[in-house]
Design a protein that fits this description.
Layout lengths: L5 H31 L3 E3 L5 E3 H17 L4 E4 L4 H5 L1 H15 L7 H9 L12 E9 L1 H5 L5 E8 L2 E9 L22 E6 L4 E5 L11 E2 L16 E2 L9 H11 L6 E2 L3 H10 L5 E3 L16 H6 L3 E4 L20 E5 L3 H14 L8
Parallel strand pairs: 3-4, 10-11
Antiparallel strand pairs: 1-2, 4-5, 5-6, 6-7, 7-8, 8-9, 12-14, 13-14
Helix pairs in contact: 1-2, 1-4, 2-4, 2-5, 7-10
Length: about 375
């Protein structure tokens, strides 16, 4: 891809491959480590945090920080748990050294400082350019050896300009419907990437011996959707208690869209399957008006869908504001659909909310 961000794109793709190797290495030993009781811990939101989360965030931050020292960084994790758990910290250091070399970090304190550097910066502050990471999106499915993603985004002035997403278990030839247990039978996985205004691309994560890692540009398939009959849904059905399932299903029924369609727990895999054309619509309404999305679950990955003709707003029809904070407090929920019929999906969301007696969520 010839773009103003070619150097950034090449660096992000390269480090995403190493991050995927770390995730695969951790997966290879996950079952034994879990049996020992030392593989995962629990965050305050009750999702498991693994060695891979910490190791990948440290890898991404140090590697891209060395390449672009003037940029800022935002990531999901802090190093508090590592400092309290020396055995976990030693596992993180070991897997980074195994997959990325033993010179990347000076010592354990250096690694912890790098991880924490992602927890102190807020969008809209500091450098104009900010990298946003989700080291493992879909941690619960990751532990089950199901769909997960490594998400890397570059924001320039609060605007998504670059996306690189590694999906170690998703085939480059995947077709609908896609679920968490839809795993690439070849074991090769894929990488999706995009630069604003230059399209979205996909290529294998791993090559066959002697085979080049050739990429192909994804067609702007969302431009072909001109009526609700062309809509294909992706959601997370009955697995997350944060959303209003009856509304999500009701919107699909109102538009006569088969539901749930693709069914994925992680947000980044959902954006990815929309980019590849396995789906082209998603709606998410939180149960509470004060519940907000987290920037690392969406930044960059949304760009993949936008580059194939998609439009993304919140439930009120407002553009997603990535400068609002680590939580997207300027927006409530998501409505994503092909640009030409996004307004029809948005109207169906409003009509369904009122019909279900949940109009207060539109306030």
């Amino acid at each position: 891809m010839d773009s103003p961000y070619r150097r950034e794109l090449e660096a992000a793709i390269d480090v995403a491959q190493t991050a995927a190797r770390i995730s695969r290495e951790v997966l290879a030993t996950a079952q034994a480590a879990a049996t020992e009781g030392s593989f995962d811990i629990v965050k305050d939101d009750l999702s498991p945090v693994t060695v891979a989360d910490f190791a990948i965030q440290a890898l991404l931050t140090r590697t891209l920080g060395n390449a672009f020292p003037e940029d800022g960084f935002i990531g999901e994790e802090s190093a508090d748990e590592l400092r309290q758990n020396p055995r976990l910290l030693s596992r993180v250091l070991a897997v980074v050294a195994q997959c990325a070399g033993d010179t990347l970090f000076h010592d354990a304190d250096d690694l912890c400082r790098v991880i924490d550097s992602c927890a102190t910066l807020a969008p809209g502050t500091g450098p104009r350019r900010i990298w946003v990471f989700d080291p493992i999106d879909g941690t619960k499915t990751f532990i089950r050896h199901e769909q997960y993603a490594v998400n890397i985004a570059l924001l320039d002035g609060g605007r998504e300009v670059l996306s690189v997403v590694a999906l170690p278990l998703l085939s480059v030839d995947v077709t609908a419907p896609v679920a968490d247990d839809t795993v690439d039978p070849t074991g090769r996985g894929c990488i999706l990437y995009a630069v604003r205004g230059h399209g979205a691309y996909i290529r294998p994560l791993l090559a066959e011996p002697g085979e080049p890692l050739a990429a192909r540009r994804l067609p702007r398939h969302a431009d072909d959707a001109t009526s609700p009959e062309d809509l294909r849904s992706v959601t997370c059905w009955a697995l997350l208690d944060s959303g209003v399932d009856v509304v999500h299903k009701g919107v699909a029924e109102r538009l006569r869209v088969p539901f749930p369609g693709c069914d994925l727990l992680g947000w980044v895999p959902r954006w990815a399957v929309m980019a590849v054309g396995a789906a082209n619509m998603t709606v998410w309404v939180y149960k509470k008006r004060d519940r907000y999305a987290k920037i690392w679950d969406h930044a960059g990955a949304m760009l993949l869908f936008e580059e194939v003709g998609g439009m993304i707003t919140d439930v009120h029809g407002k553009a997603i504001d990535l400068t609002a904070g680590r939580k997207l407090e300027a927006n409530f929920g998501f409505v994503a659909a092909p640009r030409s019929i996004h307004h029809l999906v948005l109207k169906a969301v409003h009509d369904t909310l009122r019909a279900e007696g949940k109009g207060e969520l539109l306030q």
